[in-house]
């Protein structure tokens, strides 16, 4: 019996490939450092080089935080999906459309475990690094003597905290979304999730992971909706910036209701993760979508066009 030859690590990492990676890394570093060196000369000329280094370290810190967060969330989700895959799913089944891909996926397990979280981590780190200014404002914010008239919050909240919190919640929501999608695909290919006609089934491990991840995602969406009500006070509204009559009387109450609905649906998904009944959370999700269209768009439009004089 002939055996398939395995490619050794030395053959995978040939001198040519290593040299190519080094050249690409050096080229990227040179392109990046050339602009930085020019900026450094300029700031040193003005006597404010510390400002440039503060910006640099803020970008590095945000990149590290963003990359680690995305990598850990997605990586743990994929690892759990592989670890809890059903053993019987490895057997051949003509009725299983994913059977032919299962062996390939498990052969590429390490590539999937490292590659997908790694790529997403780099992209997430770059996105987080672009928010360095919001992070510095959040860390160095100071109170003001003024409160807003709608929520009675210090104006510093809108200047220093709200932009960063909005971006942070959106980032966490994105990480949970990718974790849910990738882990669900791994469960699907490995047989943890099965669709046969109109019937579907899930293993207990897949059900718990998908349900908890969906619940956390909805919690993040609820937090985002709750923060959106504060953003109405800083949004441009035609001739001026701030909340309009429709915002105060329709948009803000609607966002508060939607945040509550998101929290309720999250609880339904959490319960379904352990009891295995998906009817209520799916109905709740549909009602949430319909409610967002009505409370988020239709009702404010009606108030703006028929009640505002």
Name its key features:
single chain; 309 residues; mainly alpha; two-stranded antiparallel sheet; 4% strand
SSE blueprint and pairings:
Blueprint: H1 9-12, H2 15-46, H3 49-83, H4 99-107, H5 109-129, H6 132-140, H7 155-190, E1 193-196, E2 199-202, H8 204-231, E3 236-237, E4 240-241, H9 245-275, H10 279-306
Antiparallel strand pairs: 1-2, 3-4
Instruction: Please state roughly what percent of the residues sit in beta strands, choosing from under 5%, 5-15%, 15-25%, 25-35%, 35-45% or over 45%.
Output: under 5%
Label the overall shape: flat
User: In DSSP terms, counting alpha (H) and pi (I) runs of 4 or more, how many helices?
Assistant: 10
What are the low-pLDDT stretches, counting only 5+ consecutive residues below 50? 1-10
Q: State the secondary-structure class.
A: mainly alpha
Alpha-carbon distance between the termini? 86 Å
Roughly how much helix do the residues carry, as a percent range?
Answer: over 70%
Number of strands: 4
- Our Rg estimate from Cα atoms comes to 25 Å
Spatial strand order of the main sheet: 1-2
Largest sheet: 2 strands, antiparallel
Number of domains: 2
| Average of per-residue pLDDT values | 83
The topology string of helices and strands comes to HHHHHHHEEHEEHH
Describe the overall structure:
A two-stranded antiparallel ribbon has the order 1-2. Strands 3-4 form a two-stranded antiparallel sheet. The chain has 2 domains: 49-195, no CATH class; 203-309. With 309 residues, it is mainly alpha-helical. Mean pLDDT is 83; it is low at 1-10. The protein has helices at 9-12, 15-46, 49-83, 99-107, 109-129, 132-140, 155-190, 204-231, 245-275, 279-306, and strands at 193-196, 199-202, 236-237, 240-241. α3 (49-83) packs antiparallel against α5 (109-129) and α6 (132-140) packs across α7. The protein contains 10 helices and 4 strands. The protein starts with 8 loop residues before the first helix and ends with a helix.
């Amino acid at each position: 019996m002939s055996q398939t030859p395995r490619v050794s690590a030395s053959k995978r990492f040939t001198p040519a490939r290593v040299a190519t990676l080094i050249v690409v890394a050096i080229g990227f570093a040179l392109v990046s450092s050339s602009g930085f060196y020019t900026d450094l000369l300029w700031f040193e000329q003005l006597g404010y080089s510390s400002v440039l280094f503060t910006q640099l370290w803020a970008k590095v810190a945000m990149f590290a935080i963003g990359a680690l967060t995305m990598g850990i969330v997605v990586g743990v989700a994929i690892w759990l999906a592989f670890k809890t895959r059903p053993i019987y799913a490895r057997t051949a089944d003509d009725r299983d459309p994913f059977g032919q891909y299962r062996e390939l996926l498990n052969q590429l397990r390490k590539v999937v475990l490292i590659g997908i979280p790694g790529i997403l981590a780099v992209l997430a780190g770059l996105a987080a690094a672009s928010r360095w200014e919001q992070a510095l404002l959040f860390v160095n914010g100071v109170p003001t003597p003024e409160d807003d008239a709608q929520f009675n919050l210090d104006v510093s909240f809108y200047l220093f905290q709200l932009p960063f919190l909005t971006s942070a919640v959106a980032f966490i929501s994105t990480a949970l979304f990718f974790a849910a999608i990738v882990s669900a695909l791994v469960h699907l290919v490995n047989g943890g999730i099965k669709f046969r006609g109109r019937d579907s089934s899930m293993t207990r491990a897949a059900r718990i992971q998908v349900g908890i991840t969906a619940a956390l995602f909805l919690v993040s969406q609820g937090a985002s909706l709750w923060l959106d009500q504060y953003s109405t006070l800083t949004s441009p509204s035609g001739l001026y910036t701030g909340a309009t009559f429709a915002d105060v009387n329709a948009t803000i109450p609607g966002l508060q209701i939607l945040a509550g609905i998101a929290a309720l649906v999250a609880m339904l998904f959490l319960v379904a993760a352990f009891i295995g009944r998906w009817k209520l959370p799916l109905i709740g999700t549909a009602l949430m979508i319909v409610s967002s269209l009505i409370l988020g768009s239709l009702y404010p439009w009606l108030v703006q066009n028929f009640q505002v004089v």
